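Record 1 of the preview.
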Amino acid sequence: MRRFRVIGWLAVLALVIAACGGDGGTTTTAAQQTTTTAGETTTTEGSTDTTQPASSDNPLEEYGESLDADPALIEKALGPVEPSDEASWNIVLASIARANQDLDDATVAKALECWAAQECDTGSGGDLVMGYADGGGNDVNVWRSVSKMEAVLQALTYPEIGTIVATAANFNPDPAVHANDIRFLINRGVDFIVGYPDMGIAIADAIKEADDAGIPYISFSAGWVGLPDQEGALVPGEDYLSVVGEDLCALGESFAQVLNENVGRGKVALLGGTPNNALSLGWQRCTIDALADSITLVNPPANRDSTTGDTNWYNPIIPDIFEGLLVANPDIRGYAYEYADGMLSGFDAYEELDIPIENLTLALRTDEQSLFCDWVERAEPTYNIWYSAGGNFQSRTGVTAAMLHINGADVPGVITVPHVMRQVTADDCDPNRPNPVVSGTSLVPNALLQQMFQTGS
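->
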């Protein structure tokens, strides 16, 4: 039986029209990873001391940032990627460098306090107030919960940040709720806002109000406030500070490459999140363009400006969406989707329709352990998965980019996070993960995840 049997899911859909981005919201040759080293980074009680010897190799040194990111953390967060453009890659390195934290008990306690509270005093005595605006929230989605903790941990490495104020729209379908959360932060007097704009263009006015008030807004997980060619879209670098995330077209082309090479000939389907969200739309457009002629897309979108396979990243309705695809096309051989755990929910429809999980290729963005461990248990040689990365750490990059801007550095309007597709192996399943829906690529330490999700030690 399926894990969720939803009666009247259309009614439920109306209540959950917004869902997790990204995330939701994790075939190409693995490239040699390179990093730039510029001095030492040490951490005491959660704060990073970025004092370094002068180095012409580090253009961010004068703004208090190290580029000496631990290669193991880069590998964990991103895989064996090639660096993106220099300006973007330096900010990514600086953000990961701060993730090498030696968390003592006091810092863990403070991180948990700030993660759970709407407002907290970091204890640093700093004057800056960080705003965090999530269209989801801790209580409604694990990916969002972990991404917030990443941002909190990053904030605690900056003594200048004395207060963190957070809002959570909890996927409310009313754009006004999301917009009012941003206006609340504006009125609270925050110095910058990091967040994920689930409602995209529908909350553009509020994001522009923050910019007009001199409050930098930076989104992560490719949270574009509308794609550049969409009517009403804001321009990152002009209307808001920056968007952190993968090159969505390149990601979509990577998905197509996985399907072309491993399906070869047959039917595939694309799945996405909230209808027409910029994340799904960005990669779906380019996946469709790059699919081989021998591949048949069973659910093409209505037009180039609309998404297909909308799941709202909401697990209870996902099985019925899969059922709608499978009744007409039981021989689907591949999927592209940005949400690994959502794919696992879709398998409930396979079970109910008595369709075997075989001769199947998945091209995914995120890397929730739930799907990967299920893959190990199935041990089906004709079923294979490729994925990129969970991307939770991108909220850290947003915090660092905002601090760089405040300290006078030039921050690009688009901070491109490189990606690479990796084939899932048994090593990608960690049965001891504190929560099976946590991405394996998250940089939040396991000990802290255990306390977040109240699991045993």
